[in-house]
Design a protein that fits this description.
The complex is a heterodimer of chains A (about 280) and B (about 280). With about 280 residues, chain A is of the alpha/beta class. Chain A has 2 domains: about 240 residues, P-loop containing nucleotide triphosphate hydrolases (Rossmann fold, 3-Layer(aba) Sandwich), CATH 3.40.50.300; about 40 residues, no CATH class. In chain A, about 35% of the residues lie in helices and about 20% in strands. Chain A has 10 helices and 10 strands. In chain A, strand 4 and strand 5 form a beta hairpin. The longest helix of chain A is centred in the middle third of the chain and has 17 residues. Chain A starts with a strand and ends with a helix. With about 280 residues, chain B is an all-alpha fold. Chain B contains 11 helices and 2 strands, in the order H-H-H-H-H-E-E-H-H-H-H-H-H. Chain B has a two-stranded antiparallel ribbon. Chain B starts with 14 loop residues before the first helix and ends with a helix. Classes of the chains: A alpha/beta (about 280), B mainly alpha (about 280). The interface between A and B is large, with 44 and 39 residues. The complex binds adenosine-5'-diphosphate and magnesium ion (MG). Adenosine-5'-diphosphate (ADP) binds next to helix 1 of chain A. The site of magnesium ion has 4 residues of chain A, from helix 1.
Chain lengths: ~280, ~280
């Protein structure tokens, strides 16, 4: 089933006086399959965050339509079903927390939905378990690491039981360990709970772990393919200000020098194998 | 985190933490009012003992309470100086040096004023030490529910207040960071008169504001994304209910307030008696 469907969507922010509004999202059509793991990349200002905010009705398209599980985001009556189907995690975990106690913060979403008390408690328990933070239930996020805080922000979103989770550069402010923690959590959600994940990021190692990559440029979708196929484009990616992972670049460079090596190598093991094979052949 | 203890929550389990948050808000308000009736040094000592006892019962280190006054130290010094030299009441003796005139009554007045401010801050921080912001929101909402009748959005106001409280430490930290960054670029914030100092603070204040607005933007999106206002009847995870514990706390608190009032109106400030007793002891 299609989770999110965009048809010819345009969106422009209000421009300063005397200036012409520029489309931040400029004619995007897109379908995201339920259960898939999609990475979105692109340089700053390419429209990724705007696109993300269109997914759950935080922004409404100027023209075109956004449908979430068959519901149009322009339909005011359904806006809260849409927002509870598409959870969203932002960049800075500190700016997403409303309460000073972990369990209170996670309960915020279910409380807003007007759920009964025991259901709220069940959901808080479950959400904490899903991100592996059950023992922090009564603590305060104040002194936690970035990775832990961001996992709590994810738990706060999980408690509204969304079917899709959108992460807008949620790993950008974290150290490598925190990034790994967050990536492990969202991969587990995707594999075990069949949750649809849309992950906006600048880190190519994270992109490689996705099933599909969307490259944004100037508010348009520039490329939409598997990570392998996208990275195989090598130098072409420069114009979108992204660069393939080091292993792919290395394979590319070897191929340029005439070595018989595939240009779409994505992992260290593959590169190792390919080089061994080359050496054995000689 | 460094020195800012104000607005911070101590995540431990204690009888004080478990008190009904509405009662704690009422206690805090009553405490603030009571502080203006403390008449003697005996009274201030009693208040301090009371606060230390509450800290002990709440498993909050008293150090945290004392730290909370660090932020107002400048204010304290300024008020103390003003009270000392611009004391307008009658004086038994006057000591004059150059343009400054000081009397024992002025010293007494300035000291009491300072104790009052210090104890006010220390007492009110106990509320935030022992009550989560979400509990505070619920309690304020519940206490001011009648205002809903005249169309005041109590829930929203309560949420705004508790979020503001949650963001204070972060903003102070941010101010510090920016200040250090400006100093690293050679900004001089310490020297010069007050106007020069204010001017030197501008490159700090503006980035802090910009950052605060950016935070507010993301927070607003985060609230919406988590279905804020989805249901007209918002439910709550934590029930607030009055327990035996609350009644006992109320009795203890009432006794404390009673002693302060007795000291002022019946005993006329115990200090006099204590001094007398001391003098007769000395012969
Ligand atoms: N709140 C806003 N008001 C006006 N313009 C904005 C706003 N947010 C983003 N833009 C503009 O829209 C474009 C797309 O921005 P954004 O979606 O944030 O890109 P990305 O997330 O890829 O960095 C940029 O040109 C940016 O300047
Ligand atoms: Mg962005």
């Amino acid at each position: 089933m299609t989770a999110i469907k965009l048809e010819n969507v345009y969106y422009a922010y209000e421009a300063d006086e005397g200036e012409k509004p520029v489309n931040a999202v400029d004619g995007v059509s897109l379908e995201v399959e339920e259960g898939s793991f999609v990475a979105v990349v692109g340089h700053n200002g390419s429209g990724k965050s705007t696109l993300a905010r269109l997914f759950n009705g935080l922004l409404l398209p100027d023209s075109g339509s956004v449908t979430v599980f068959g519901m149009d985001t322009k339909d005011e009556k359904q806006i809260y079903s849409i927002r509870s189907s598409v959870g969203m995690v932002f960049q800075n975990p500190d700016n997403q927390m409303v309460a000073s106690v972990v369990e209170d913060d996670i309960a915020f979403g279910p409380e807003n939905l007007g759920l009964p008390r025991d259901e709220i408690i069940r959901r808080v328990d479950r959400a904490l378990e899903q991100v592996g933070m059950s023992e922090y239930r009564k603590s305060t996020p104040f002194r936690m690491s970035g990775g832990q805080k961001q996992r709590l922000a994810i738990a706060g979103v999980l408690a509204i039981r969304p079917k899709v989770i959108v992460l807008d550069e949620s790993t950008a402010m974290l150290d490598p360990k925190g990034r790994r923690e967050v990536m492990d959590v969202i991969h587990a959600l995707n594999k075990e709970e069949k949750m649809t994940v849309i992950h906006i990021t600048h880190y190519m190692e994270e992109v490689q772990e996705a099933e599909r990559v969307i490259v944004m440029d100037g508010g348009k979708i520039a490329v939409d393919d598997t990570p392998r196929a996208v990275f195989a484009r090598g130098e072409q990616l420069k114009k979108y200000k992204i660069s393939p992972p080091a292993v792919t670049l290395m394979a590319d460079a070897l191929a340029d020098c005439g070595a018989d090596i595939a240009r779409d190598i994505a992992t260290e093991e593959e590169l190792e194998d390919a080089i061994c094979r080359l050496l054995c052949k000689d | 985190m460094r020195d800012i203890a104000f607005g911070q929550y101590y995540p431990v389990s204690s009888p004080v933490h478990r008190l009904d948050p509405r009662l704690k808000i009422i206690f805090t308000l009553m405490y603030i009012v009571t502080m203006f009736f403390v008449a003697s040094y005996f009274g201030y000592a009693l208040v301090l003992c009371f606060l230390l006892t509450v800290c002990a019962v709440a498993h909050v280190p008293p150090k945290a309470m004392f730290k909370s006054i660090k932020g107002i130290i400048v204010l304290l010094i300024i008020t103390a100086i003003l009270n000392l030299f611009f004391y307008a009441g009658e004086a038994s003796v006057e000591w004059t040096w150059w343009i400054f005139t000081v009397s024992p009554e002025a010293i007494d007045f300035a000291l009491k004023m300072m104790f009052r401010l210090i104890l006010l801050i220390m007492g009110t921080t106990i509320l935030t030490f022992t009550t989560g912001t979400s509990e505070l929101t619920d309690a304020i909402e519940s206490l001011f529910k009648p205002l809903n009748l005249i169309k005041i959005p109590v829930r929203d106001i309560a949420l705004i207040m508790s979020i503001a409280l949650r963001f204070i430490p972060g903003l102070i930290e941010e101010t510090d960071k920016i200040m250090m960054a400006q100093k690293a670029r050679g900004a001089d914030m310490e020297s010069g008169n007050i106007f020069k100092k204010i001017k030197a603070m501008l490159p700090v204040i503006i980035p802090v504001f910009v950052s605060a607005f950016r935070k507010a933007d993301e927070l607003a999106d985060a609230l919406d994304a988590r279905c804020y206002q989805a249901s007209p009847k918002r439910t709550k995870m934590k029930k607030m209910s009055f327990a035996w514990r609350d009644l006992i706390a109320f009795l203890i608190f009432a006794a404390f307030v009673a002693i302060i009032f007795l000291d002022k109106y019946l005993w006329g400030g115990l200090d006099g008696y204590i001094v007398q007793a001391f003098q007769s002891l000395m012969g």
